[in-house]
Design brief:
Blueprint: H1 2-20, E1 30-34, H2 40-48, E2 53-56, H3 59-67, E3 76-78, H4 87-90, E4 96-100, H5 103-116, E5 120-126, H6 142-150, E6 155-162, H7 170-189, E7 195-201, H8 208-213, E8 218-221, H9 223-226
Parallel strand pairs: 1-2, 1-8, 2-3, 3-4, 4-5, 5-6, 6-7
This protein binds pyridoxal-5'-phosphate.
Length: 232
């Protein structure tokens, strides 16, 4: 697992540099390891090497690795597409659900949280590129969604998340990240109940430096830490 520790050290260095360009330090940025398709042993090595949190995509995979103790010692985030019928497996188990994209999903999470007597932290996922293939809330619907979610007292919205369109053009990438940063500021200004903009979650292996330069304070990195995923 030598590779994992070395990769994380290199990423931390890049994070420090990008953060310093915006007057922040690396410790202001939360490094989430995107752990999909990496087994418990590899997740544990990433934790030992100092990632701040683990982010999992699939409920089934999360539950299996959870049972094996994969995430012990670090907060666990859910970052994948979530169906309402799977919500009950996550609430109370994960520290942050980053991928809340509708009032229907938020309402279901809130119901489960009420049942358990807890408050569940979430992020709102925004489909900033308006792509048909992606599941976030549309930019236009975000404020209405915030209105609705702010009435669900068993939820606490702690920020927003996005997966922007794949682009190799830096100006295009940057325009999406800056739109997110503006929404982050605008939502905070509204002072909704139960909603505070603490985390701006954007940036993956290929674009996390640019995302940080545009204001991200939470990045989700898979390939850069673990190497290429091998899809069966
Ligand atoms: C897989 C995944 C990542 C990490 O992607 P890499 O390109 O491997 O760094 C980040 N966010 C989400 C939601 C993911 O599913």
């Amino acid at each position: 697992m030598q590779g994992i520790a070395e990769n994380i050290a290199a990423i931390r260095k890049e994070i420090d540099e990008a953060a310093s360009l915006t007057g922040r330090s690396g410790s202001d940025i939360v490094l989430v390891a995107a752990t999909k398709m990496n087994d418990t042993e590899r997740v544990k090595s990433a934790i030992a090497a100092g990632v701040d949190a683990c982010g999992e995509n699939r409920v089934q995979e999360l539950l299996g690795k959870y049972e094996e103790g994969a995430y012990e010692g670090r907060p666990l985030h859910f970052i994948g597409t979530l169906q309402t019928n799977k919500v009950k497996y996550l609430v109370g188990k994960v520290d942050l659900i980053q991928s809340v994209n509708s009032l229907k999903l938020a309402t279901e999470i809130s119901k489960c949280a009420v049942k358990q007597g807890i408050v569940q932290d979430i992020l709102i996922e925004i489909n900033i590129g308006a792509e048909k293939s992606k599941s976030g809330a549309s930019e236009a619907s975000v404020f209405e969604l915030c209105e609705g979610i702010s009435k669900l007292s068993a939820l606490r919205v702690r920020g927003i998340m996005t997966i922007p369109p794949i682009s190799h053009d830096e100006a295009t990438q940057k325009s999406f990240f800056l739109k997110m940063k503006q929404l982050f500021v605008d939502i905070e200004t509204k002072k909704y109940d139960n909603i505070s903009m603490e985390f701006l979650s954007m940036g993956m292996s290929g674009d996390y430096r640019l995302a940080i330069e545009c204001g991200a304070n939470m990045v989700r990195i898979g390939t850069g830490i673990f190497g290429a995923r091998h899809y069966a």
